[in-house]
Amino acid sequence: MKTIAILLFDGVELMDFAGPAEVFIIAGEGKAFKVVTVSESQNPLKTMGGITITPDYSTDNAPHAEILVVPGGNMKSVGKAGREWLKKASLMSEITMSVCYGAFLLADAGLLDGIEATTHHWGIEDLRKAAPRCNVATGRRFVDSGRIITTAGVTAGIDGALHIVKHFLGEETANWTANEWMEHESGNLQ
Description:
The chain has 6 helices and 11 strands. It is 34% helix and 21% strand. It has helices at residues 14-26, 80-92, 103-108, 124-130, 156-169, 171-181, and strands spanning 2-7, 33-39, 45-46, 52-53, 57-58, 67-70, 95-99, 116-117, 135-136, 142-144, 148-151. It is an alpha/beta fold. Helix 5 packs antiparallel against helix 6 (171-181). The model has no long low-confidence stretch (mean pLDDT 94).
């Protein structure tokens, strides 16, 4: 069972982390991935829409994760501890995936240098400025650059998560998760 750690912070976009979390929780009949949430503290926080979430772990006691998910939202609320945890944890992860504006945290960590990446279409030009050594792609739901996967806006995180499921568990499992459980077009899996 692979551990998936999702970075949370005040003002996180709910669908950016909940959509991928649901994919991973269901894939492989719930036996392939363990999903945990990580924040700078274990204190409750509020999403962009005002939903209160209590993280499972702080950045100080978070378990090793093979896969990291970095959602978007109010990126300014991610402080030094969250950014340092991301840098350190991404060195040990197999895959680090951003959703939407989460790509800006990857850029800040230097994780987009020399690769292709994407983000929500509203942020394409700003990402080019934030990561000048990155080839920023447009018009794609997600970009797989090996250990780094970036996705476009909000629901594209589901596509990125399904792509990871396909990578680890195969196309049949990814398609079942997409079509049968999520009722989501599996044609986006690429």
